[in-house]
Every structure is written in structure tokens, then in C-alpha cells.
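User: C-alpha cells for this one?
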Amino acid sequence: MSPPAVAGARARTPDELPPGFAVALRPDARRLAHGRVLIGGSPLRALRLAAVIPERIVVADAASDRLAQRLLAANMADPVGLAPIDAAALTVVVPVRDRAEQLDRCLRVLAPLRVVVVDDASRDPDAIRRVSERHGATVIALRSNIGPAGARNAGLARVETLLVAFVDSDVVVDAAALMRLAGHTADPRVALVGPLVKGHARGASPRWFERYDAAASSLALGRRPCSVKPGAAVAWLPSACLVGRTDVLRAHGGFAAELRVGEDVDLVWRLCAAGHEVRYEPAEVALHDVRGTVAGWLGRKVAYGTGGALLAARHGDSVAPAVLSPMIALAAAAVLARRRWSIPLALAAALSSTRSLRTALPEAEGRTAAAVRLSIEGLAWGVRQESALLLRHWWPAAVVAAASSRQTRRMVGTALLVDAVVQATVERHQLEQGIVVGWVSRRLDDLAYGAGLWLGAARARSGACLLPRVVRRARPTR
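Assistant:
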């Protein structure tokens, strides 16, 4: 029964945030002009405000709704105080193939949610059925193996609730965490949300590669919540654990069943292109079993790399391994080259970038200092990106070039130094198992992923996934 109309009440549109929905400004959003200008977000942008806003905005009318939505979309604010949804509104789909023991651990913590287990042609289907029935799950048995994307779609077709969660059989995440994640759908624009997927080694004495994978899983996307989109700090979500709107996912065809890798990236980018919001919420954690052998660990990295060419064919330069302006690209290359002209060229590039940024920023007290700071940060990020290109994405070409080029060897050496500094500071969690093991593991990680990237490009007969995206100028969107 619909509530009675209230005289004088404003009718809400389907995309408006509900009254009482609250967002909080992110700590990294910088204020200029006594709070009338905000700089930050991902991608970087500057917002001029009609008035100084508080750190927390609560939706009460059309104006506060527009402001909250704009800040969320710009990655300058995050939702706060979200309430978990009721268990009756959520169904969990678990695709599985021959992982009865892992499936048992997965299902054990999902009560009281409804669960649909999709058996993707296991060699021992009876074991899967016994485990599923013991936990009260519905089983869909597929006659032929169609891959995890197709299995998820088969489960999605049987879901009758408003919301659906996809949880892989080698993942452990409890029902309460999924219901809290689903609380993000209080924002009617949110179609999909994912938690921090953290690697987990189950053995009593994890081996070196297991410890590294637990500390530096490719599926762990950081500790900062954000809006997910191509070009943002978090550009995709792993399908190991996701919560979404059933009707929206069905309307967009679910996962691309023909993809055996990269299907999660493809889904996120299709939803974003259609105007939906996707959120990352690292406050909730899903534990993902790490690979039990060195071959399995490195093989999965290779597989992830092969997805680059497939995604480039579908989404163009959204899959670019780096995004650089011409000036920053030149300056970063000069830093890596370590020649006598490197410092003057880097300073000239920083000065040019500062002028461009200062022009782009709204007129406000402190914009020159902000432009200088952003320029320096941009150059540092450019050096990090080009180091990653040499060590991870382009290493096969770098090895060939280094055999005959002293300058290439110098640049690779500098890139190794830069990467070691980054690993010891920004990403120091990767060194929990020791400096040497952490550094060697990272190099193997890069070698395996890069090999997969080039293998995928060779199969597709296209180098699009290897090319950086060059932007005309590095300046914030106003």
C-alpha cells in the first residue's frame, strides 16, 4: 500500500538520494578560498561552491541532493551511516567447480541468506550437492563447463530478490558483511558494490609466495572507499565478491559469458558507461584463498595479463597501462634517464605544468601553491607510471632493448630503484615477509603479468593494451 500524499510535498525522482542520506568529505579534498573551492577527487577536479559546506552533508532537499551526488561522483565524499539491508532482500550466487572443501567453508557463514550454488560441471557433482544441501543451498547443475561468468549468469537467472551477491567458492565473507555492503544501494544510482578482497593463506606455515600473495593480492584495491570508474584510483572490482541490483544486472546481460578472464572489469565498465554508479567499500573484507603452488600463483598472474587485449577490444584505451600528458611523459623519462639535462628538463616540465594548472584552477587565494603541489605530485606519479611500464607492462621489449642500449639499462636500473622506494614506503605491507622475499616476489609478479599481457596482445594481433593513453594536458576538470 502506498503512503498517502502530503499536501505541498515535493515528488522525488527515481535517482534522488533518500532524505537523511549522508556523505562526508574525504580527508584528501583540499579547500581553497576559505572553503569555497574544493580540489581533489579521482580523476582530479576542482569544484567552485556557492557557499562553504560542512564536512558532513545530509540530504534534505533538492539542493543538498545535487551537492551530495556531485561530491560522490567526483570522489570527493563518501557515504556514511548506511544501514544494512534485510536478509530477505538478498540472494547469494556461488559458482563452483570441484572445490567441495572450499565450498563448505564459503557456505558455512552465509546463513540466513538464500544461496544458489551453480555447479559448473564438476567431476564429482555428488560432493558439491552434498555440501550444498547440508547448508540449505539450492543447486543448479550445469552439464558442460561454461566458466565462472556463465555460471554466475545461470544463478542470476534464478534469483527472485531485489539484490544479488556473487561470492566465489574460494572466498569467505559472512552474511552480515554482504548485508552491510548492500546498504550502499540506498543510493538509487548504485548498481554494484564490492568489498576489499584480501588474500588469505590457510596453512599453518604459509610458503613465501603464499605470504606475498596474502600481503599483495592483485584483487586487493586499497583501503580507501571510492566511486569506481575507468580512470579513477579504483577502476574495477573483482568478481570474487560483489553485490548488485538484480534487475540492473539482468538488463545489461550480466557477465560476458564468453570471457574467462576480465569479465568483472568488463561488467563494471559497461555499467559505468550506462550511467550507473559502482562503489568500492574496503571497510568490508572478503578473504580469498591464495594459490597453493608457485605455478598456480604465477599462472593466475599470466591469465590476468591475457585479459588486457580482450578488454582493449571492447573498451578501447580505458585499459591503457598508463595515462600521461606529453610534458609529464617527457619529464618522467628524463628522470629515469639520469642524464645531466634530466633535472633542468624536469624543472621546466614542472613549471609548465604549474602554469597550466594555475590557469585551470578557479581564481582563489592559494591557487598558486596548490598548482605547485599538484604539479610535483603529477611528476612523481608520472615517474611511478613509467617505472611500472618498464618493469611490468613492457619488460619483454625492455629486455631486448637493454641488450644493446646502455641508456635503456640505465632507465631500467632507475625504475628498479623507484619501485623499491615505492614498495618500502607507499606499499610497505608487501614487505611483511622480508625485504628480499618481498622484492623478488614483486619482480616475479611483474614478469608473469607482463608475459600474459604480451601473450594476449599476440593472440589478438593488437598492441592496443600495451599503449599508454596520452592526454593533452594534466589539469583538473572544473
